Sequence to fold (580 residues):
Amino acid sequence: MTAILGLNAFHGDAAAALIVDGEVVAAVEEERFNRVKHCAGFPSLAAAWCLSDAGIEPGDLTHVAIGRNPRANVGAKVRQLLRNPPRPAYLRSRLANAAQVTDVRSQLAVALNVDPRQFNPTIHHVEHHVAHAASAYYVSPFPEAAVLTVDGFGDYASTMLAHGTGDALKVLDRVLFPHSLGVLYTAVTQWLGFPYYGDEGKIMGLAPYGDPERFLPQLRQLVNADAKLFELDLRYFTHHSKGVEMTWDEGSPTIGRIFSPALESLLGPSRVPKSELTQDHEDVAAALQRVLEERYLHLVRSVQERTGSTRLCLAGGVALNAVANGMIREQTAVEEVYVQPAAGDSGTAVGAALEVWHATLKKPRSFVMRHAYTGPGYTDEACLAALETAGLASTLLTDDELFTTVAGRIAEGDVVGWFQGRMEFGPRALGHRSIVADPRRTDMKDILNARIKQREPFRPFAPSLLAEAAGEWFEQDYTSPFMVMVYKTRPEKRALIPAVNHVDDTGRLQTVERDVEPRYYRLIEEFGKLTGVPILLNTSFNENEPIVTTPQDAVECFVKTRMDLLVLGNRLVRRPAPSA
Fold:
């Protein structure tokens, strides 16, 4: 047996993953344990859980891989430092971060509660974008594929083009610092008044409310379309000249302002966070999304033409832009697409470990990641204990009773916390840690925001549907099991599912296959039998916090919000009637 622990550490969305003989047996983000959203730092709890879950002792761990390599692209780093020496404080912070990345063994020993002197796995530092590429290609169903990774920055690169053939990846090209589509999107996201780590996803939901044409000429000035891949117009950014004020400690990561005064001269004064959103803001968001799509699809065409492949694997934070992903098969020569479910930085934990398994140990591919259910699961006894501690009465149902009862309550308008099996890896709730509701109700979006989610009203909710029904309800039927594709809703179906049909008549689909996730499939199927709509509204089981992990987390979220039902495995809990 060969066990490889993969890590994303000292970066946003710290995570750990365990590969045993080439198979992903466990993968989870640190935030799910310590309840700190997008937690950076070292994934101590996640790493310890991965080994414990698999029954592997620290001494049996043969290899540890981290998706960071401070020595990668070092020539480009030196040239940039000579051209533009950084401020001393910024340089110290980056050197400190690199030192932490280098010292993995001792920190992992502390996390696993072992003597560092007796803990001797081989440590591997895998370049960030190689880890991204590996995370997508090696677990894809494709024997050969073009591979594209796009994010902010990692190990001085923002973009990688590669070709996967058989058991190997060949890097074809990189876009290096200071040019980055991730930085482009983050800078304008900040200008729009959304300053927090991870806020970029909100802009994808805001963009359909705007007219892209009004600000498209200005936004196109930010990126040079004549470059081979792309180049930023650096007048509008500060990350290359002043550095980026970042914190990668144990808490939530922060990123300082990265747009220059020139951007405000171009677009006007930046929006104050939480102030009114105007038509101008919506139009800028629409133009930003359009420019991102143009450059993203140019990269797709470039890697497709260089490899000759009609298959594409995607990873990196920008690969979570589901709107752009939904355009790939319609607007390029690509016919098949695989997007890693944890496409952001947490997924580099999987990729780093797989790169060691395939590239270093020369082992053949044998595993396809068809689902993302690689986190903790809990017994009925654990669920019952959490309920009893909270003083909540539950009813234990058979499967037949459970699915028909819950589907019926959803059809009657109940909002349900649905907690099943092993938790999802990645940013999307995929039917194991989900809040589910009726997509037919025009008021359901407002109900969810008022009772539970308390999020911006422009953000859409997603549809989960039976995979074989996708073409009947949406204009594309290509599989999207990880909720990373946005498709147009068919015109005749839009009025039937208003709660999941966005303002531009689209939905960010999760296609559910019976053989991959039979329980969630059956819930949707039973709802479809009752209503004629084989679709559920699906949103993450949380309230402004990381997605729930344990039964205790689920119970606490249920109690403090106004969900109608809580389902833990086969246990059903109805909200207690308010006391007189």
Notes: Residues 3-132+344-360 form a domain with the Nucleotidyltransferase; domain 5 fold (CATH 3.30.420.40). The CA atoms of residues 131 and 351 lie 4 Å apart.
